Amino acid sequence: MSKLLQINITANWGSHGKIAEGIGKLAISQGWDSYIAYGRYANASVSHLYHIGNMADEYGHVALTRLFDSHGLGSKRVTRQLVEYIRQLSPDIIHLHNIHGYYLNYPILFQYLAESGTPVVWTLHDCWSFTGHCAHFMTKACEKWQTSCRNCPLTHTYPKSWWMDQSARNFIKKKSTFLSVGDMTIIPVSKWLEEKVSVSFLKIFPVRHIYNGIDVSLFCPQETDPSVRTKYQIPQGKKIVLGVASKWYKNKGFDEFISLRKLLPEKYAIIMVGVNKKQLKVLPDGIIGIERTDNIRELASLYSMADVFLNLTWEDTFPTTNIEALACGTPVVTYNTGGCSECITDSNGFVVNQGDLQQVCMAIRQICSADKNRYLTICRDYALSHFNEQDRYMDYLNLYRMLIDKQTE
Fold it and tell me: 184, 124 in Cβ contact below 8 A?
């Protein structure tokens, strides 16, 4: 029986954690043993869970990052413990997801990976793996990472450093560390990210693009739930513009949603899901704020209720919110950011230039001028054919089998 070990910041929590959970669940159904090692935040899992570190170690890693720009270089003791766990487990495949997040020492982990010879699959959900500091460089249009990072313009973004800029050192260390592994396959989650990898130092590895998938049995068109409408005081008879984020901040389009309220007539109701308590207090009249919810059925009801799903993010690789909306039969208006446009066709939404709120308003009006039933089947069918999580997870299982077979040749 083959053993799969996945490593991620979370387990069955958040988008990446749920992807790892889904892969593990499918692997188990195919006769594998599945294990997930995680840093923090976990829900119940069908896989065997291993918790890396503790809060004290995390705080120490945060301090190291803030003071010395040394993200990924703390957590030495707990990473050595993880390596010992991996040695005893002896997995057939090691699948990395987000190894940043204040919980793991990447040089220690990769020293083991290089020595073990175990096939490694690394799914890239952002750009941290090939830059000297940032997870996203879009807002500064920075391309230093293609050659060598230095004088980083993004040290005050995640993973935030208060004073020091060690981007040049970090770039060199990441490059030498990550290139030390002989058998590693890189999985970008969007074509946009695949293009970036192709001009980064990771280009020496086999690259196979696999989109994120979603549970299309949960994210599906639903009849409007009166209890959800009542709970959040969503008015009848208005066109609903919906935005969803795990966290709202400037680069996710928070300020632009506020500005949009002034540009759209009152016949449009704007809903923002994922706002925090402080943000709730500053939302203007006409914007309904909803705190983050893990209730998938309630979220699917909101997607289904909406006439338009709006994504005004300035930095993203491939947001699952876009495909969740499509799976619920709702057309999408999105900024042309990263891989955001890759699920949009001429018939299921609009792609808008970043910052062009007039164009956003025009797209919203055009969609809302038609009966929503015009979009429902088109959006749903596109999600089913491209982003069914069972199809995308099977892509991983097939890759695992190929890598194991290659080792035994």
Answer: no
Segment 208-227, tens digit of pLDDT? 999 999 999 999 999 877 88
Which residue from 331, 278, 281, 284 is spatially nearest to 304, judged by alpha carbons? 331
CA 201 to chain centre: 22
DSSP state of 277: H
- The single-letter code of the amino acid at 100 is H
Cα Rg of the chain (Å, integer): 22
d(CA 344, CA 307): 16
Can you tell me the mean pLDDT for 166-179? 98
According to the model, what pLDDT value does residue 227 have?
85
97 Cβ contact list (under 8 Å, min separation 6)? 6, 7, 8, 9, 16, 19, 20, 123, 125
| Neighbour-count burial of 190, counting CB atoms closer than 10 A to its CB (0-12 exposed, 13-18 middle, 19+ buried) | buried
pLDDT in tens, 105-162: 999 999 999 999 999 999 999 999 999 999 999 999 999 999 999 999 999 999 999 9
